[in-house]
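Quick question: what would this complex look like in 3D?
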Amino acid sequence: AQKITQTQPGMFVQEKEAVTLDCTYDTSDPSYGLFWYKQPSSGEMIFLIYQGSYDQQNATEGRYSLNFQKARKSANLVISASQLGDSAMYFCAMRDQGAQKLVFGQGTRLTINP
Amino acid sequence: DTGVSQNPRHKITKRGQNVTFRCDPISEHNRLYWYRQTLGQGPEFLTYFQNEAQLEKSRLLSDRFSAERPKGSFSTLEIQRTEQGDSAMYLCASSFGGIGYTFGSGTRLTVV
């Protein structure tokens, strides 16, 4: 069965610093996708970045990059030059090839301090 | 493209009452998903539609829950005889071909 583990309930970072949010996953399917979402207090899940299991390079989207280590089954999110607006819950999720549902981790609450 | 719209944003109901939530997906998206998120947890999958067909249901979707997508456009999620354990955020998402899920802002249900 698919499982996502986020071991950091909360992270506190100074503005402009880089931050890494951890995510490990487990699946028996060789083909899968990994997602990161941001959830501000308004509740909406905002898509940040996607990594396919067969992608050769780590995904990047602006200030977001995904540190994908397939052998270790980890997909950490790196946010560079953090901003106050980055304060939110962050969820890692995965989907097996052919499946429709996303399986989410428990999330990490990120707080950016001025 | 106005995004995924969910109504109402908040709902407070008494235990035992029925409630219905609505989700309007992005118009060209053929797939629609419902998730439930309890406090401090990640969202959990409830059910999924491709066009008007409900193709997958989670075991979390008890007999008191029913979802429809009658014309392959908007969807409704009804909870009958609500219980306090139903208090949660109900999130709707849509996608085209299972790529690029877009979530709505959710409906927060409080059962008192």
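Answer marked as accepted. The CA atoms of residues 35 and 45 of chain B lie 4 Å apart.
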